[in-house]
Amino acid sequence: MSMEVTVKEIAVTARTAGQQMARIPTAQKDGALIAIADRLQKKAEDIFFANRIDLKQARSNGLSAPMIDRLTVTDATIDSMANGLREVAALGDPVGAVTDSWRRPNGLEVSRVRIPLGVIGIIYESRPNVTVDAAGLCLKAGNAVILRGGSEAIHSNRVLADLIATSLAASGLPEKAVQIVPITDRAAINLLLEQERFIDLIIPRGGEGLIRFVVEHSKIPVLKHYKGVCHVYVDRGADLSMAAEICLNAKVQRPGVCNAMETLLVHQNEAESFLPEMGQRFKDAGVTIKGCAKTRKLISWASEAKDADWPAEYLDLILAVRVVGDMDQAMEHIAAHGSNHTEVIVTRDYARARRFVREVDASAVMVNASTRFNDGGQLGLGAEIGISTTKLHAYGPMGLNELTATKFVVFGEGQVRTA
Amino acid sequence: MSMEVTVKEIAVTARTAGQQMARIPTAQKDGALIAIADRLQKKAEDIFFANRIDLKQARSNGLSAPMIDRLTVTDATIDSMANGLREVAALGDPVGAVTDSWRRPNGLEVSRVRIPLGVIGIIYESRPNVTVDAAGLCLKAGNAVILRGGSEAIHSNRVLADLIATSLAASGLPEKAVQIVPITDRAAINLLLEQERFIDLIIPRGGEGLIRFVVEHSKIPVLKHYKGVCHVYVDRGADLSMAAEICLNAKVQRPGVCNAMETLLVHQNEAESFLPEMGQRFKDAGVTIKGCAKTRKLISWASEAKDADWPAEYLDLILAVRVVGDMDQAMEHIAAHGSNHTEVIVTRDYARARRFVREVDASAVMVNASTRFNDGGQLGLGAEIGISTTKLHAYGPMGLNELTATKFVVFGEGQVRTA
Q1: Chain A with chain B: Cβ pairs closer than 8 A
Q2: Which residue among A267, B15, B54, B60 sits deepest, i.e. has the most Cβ atoms within 10 Å of its Cβ?
């Protein structure tokens, strides 16, 4: 079969599977998720076998150590995938939930009811666990899913997809509800992105390059975030020991993720009390600092922040630090260099807390908490399939609800329209 | 200025105006809407003058009578635009509404708060009233809007846009929050659809050709509906006099709109009692019927329905009629030929009503009510900017809420993340 035919067939069968999925009762969906979890653990050796082929190939292709680390499936990876599925099974079913309802003057009862989106395409890079995590969330929300992982994980992903399909069939769910694109050629992505009749949503997960490629070529709506340039602003009069704990957590607890702090903004009145000690704590934690002129007076070992540092997403133990004149300047800085991801103010001031929350444009705006909380699990959504930094359909972490739409349901007793 | 520069400048200034609009208090937005309404009525002569230029041009270009009718601005049109604005001013402000909130085990208070989408582009055909109606809704929801009406209405739209801009400035709102694209060349649409950095959403309003053109060329997300092929299914055991009132209303009350019935499906057990009399009522109302073989036995004057009739959107006093074996067949027909717009069952049966509502995929599914109720005003949304028949972001009538997004707001007292 040609690549075109293969991709089209995947999309067409996914559409049919999605229509079937929309009608599967909750208990049956949950049963299937648990069946997949059990099978993953039972068939761990099959997964390791395939993963070793990918790893061998990766090494001979000279992939970097972090890439190989992300690609490696261990016992812990499998337990984590299986437990993730069991947790999703335990979440409430979004499908059928009535999100709002009211009665019209003519007696019509109107409600909005959650329904699955349909078919979701996920395009991602080397972590094979995304195959299982994304499949679980999409299935729970009643969708079919098409997965296109990185070519370096193709053997691992094929085995995972086979295990999932077997479990789906055994649970009475449509086997085609979870499919991978078994083609490593990047042209397969282009073909997938043209199936707008059969795929309702594309979610790319990976680096900025992958995401820009997907957005550029997709005829299907894309939910994405390019990068997380998150700020903490330490306000005049802030509790500086609270600020220090928040800043340390936001930068060093897990520096390689999108909700880590990349730039610290400090009110000029607090800079002298705050920055020298904070700088030392960052230094002890292995953080390199790039500072404005005022920062460098207070943290002598900091290097100079260049223009390119303010919009930078380091994803590393590097931090840009700027002393600002007031909150307005902090908000201007955030508007100019932020990425609409996560913005934090540490403050004791009621009016400024209110204004910051109201005026800063980000998927999550927080007062006196670490940027690291912008995460579906941490915010209480149960699980997430990614974070959107554009506003249409979803803004911020996307949980099960964000994998659904709502339809209007209207109950009448013969009403007709007169005007 | 070149066309590229003009369109880009419109988009860039709209982005800035949108950021300003997001912070305008409710009372000030409402005041501006009322100021626009007042000015439209005060300056009616200016509008008529410009409209006469468009009408003269339209006649010399040989536009059809319905097109000229849609283009014509009368006293009644102006009053209707002005009153529409006053009604939108009276609606609640969606911006700032907390749609959900909860507390996490660590004490974080999480909420989701409505914010404007940003910049909305509306691309539409000849009705100049869309200029005012769309501007009113977008402004109320805190957005900036770029309007690109049909070339045949350019003089009317220019005057309307000028009147709006003057009122905005007088009310302290950013003048650039409402702009028209003053270029009649269709290439200007292409340029507009490429401004994905500055425009967040495109809503096309018009015929299927316009909408396909916009979807094909847009780099910006598009909310659209191609057509409304709405069905009424008269179930076994239905109240046939209720069914007759609903069918007559759905077909003839306003046949040229998207929520009018295009196909009637009748259960075979009811066909003999229902169709002959119903056919006569349709005939009296001037409706032409295209029927299946069974229908034509019961309505002798009906012509034959061809394959092309089942997915047809007549927008006219024409109706396709099919006798079906049971509800499954009706639902299969709807799935095959429907347009995900509005689907109605007339029934007395509890289980079938429940199943129809659950399984039929349409933006509005109704029991015992006319298809004509799928409309923002009728469903109680206050006003609408269009109906979406795709599921992402909005499905069904789009009111003020659908012109917003939500952001997460998190209040803490120093929480940091430990895992």
Answers
A1: 193
A2: B54
